[in-house]
Automatic annotation (TrEMBL):
<dbReference type="InterPro" id="IPR011250">
    <property type="entry name" value="OMP/PagP_B-barrel"/>
</dbReference>
<feature type="domain" description="Outer membrane protein beta-barrel">
    <location>
        <begin position="7"/>
        <end position="219"/>
    </location>
</feature>
<dbReference type="Pfam" id="PF13505">
    <property type="entry name" value="OMP_b-brl"/>
</dbReference>
<comment type="similarity">
    <text>Belongs to the Omp25/RopB family.</text>
</comment>
<dbReference type="InterPro" id="IPR027385">
    <property type="entry name" value="Beta-barrel_OMP"/>
</dbReference>
<dbReference type="InterPro" id="IPR051692">
    <property type="entry name" value="OMP-like"/>
</dbReference>
<keyword id="KW-0732">Signal</keyword>
<protein>
    <submittedName>
        <fullName>Outer membrane beta-barrel protein</fullName>
    </submittedName>
</protein>
<feature type="signal peptide">
    <location>
        <begin position="1"/>
        <end position="22"/>
    </location>
</feature>
<keyword id="KW-0472">Membrane</keyword>
Amino acid sequence: MRTVFAAALAASTMFAAPAAFAQDGEATFTGPRVGVIGGYDIIRPGSSEDSDIDGDDQSVDGFLYGVEAGYDIALGGAVVGVEAELSDSTGKVKANSTDPNYFGFGEVGAGRDIYVGLRAGVLASPSTLIYAKGGYTNARLNVLASDGTTELRENFELDGWRIGAGVEKAIGSNTYAKLEYRYSNYSNANFEFNNGAVTDDFDIDTDRHQIVAGVGFRF
């Protein structure tokens, strides 16, 4: 995070501008927003655990898609805000090991992911925002039935944190496009059966990398 914020500070110094510049930025990057996102999603074991996933890279990837909402406040040449996101993924995991203390969750498909967090950035131009973000994420891994279909009522729920950085470009006064990278780490999980019973929490170490593009509308 120090590296991300150092880069943001450097960008702020490089693109410093007069008061009129900041006023334009305030009009562009202030207020509520909603949007859609899509991109590349990859899940793999963390540094402290190994797995027996089929394949040499011990990872699973898929297409990420979802919706987001947020509220931003411009403060001179800087912007701070809150945001929330609901997404899903097409990735599926096939593992030889079913020990939940490792990445081998069994045969599962990546399910819905909820994220809530903060972001802060600096204006690189009146219409360009460079930002960093961070917050809480809760992800679901849906258990795959033996016939290859997905059993949505039986799943692992993973708790963790997320950090990221990106660039947002204002298109006119009300729309925007963005590109960002996010890293998530999940360290805690439980298993929910289809009858509603939930196991005690157990430790995991699961990493998630995402490259996401998005478009949205500001009110």
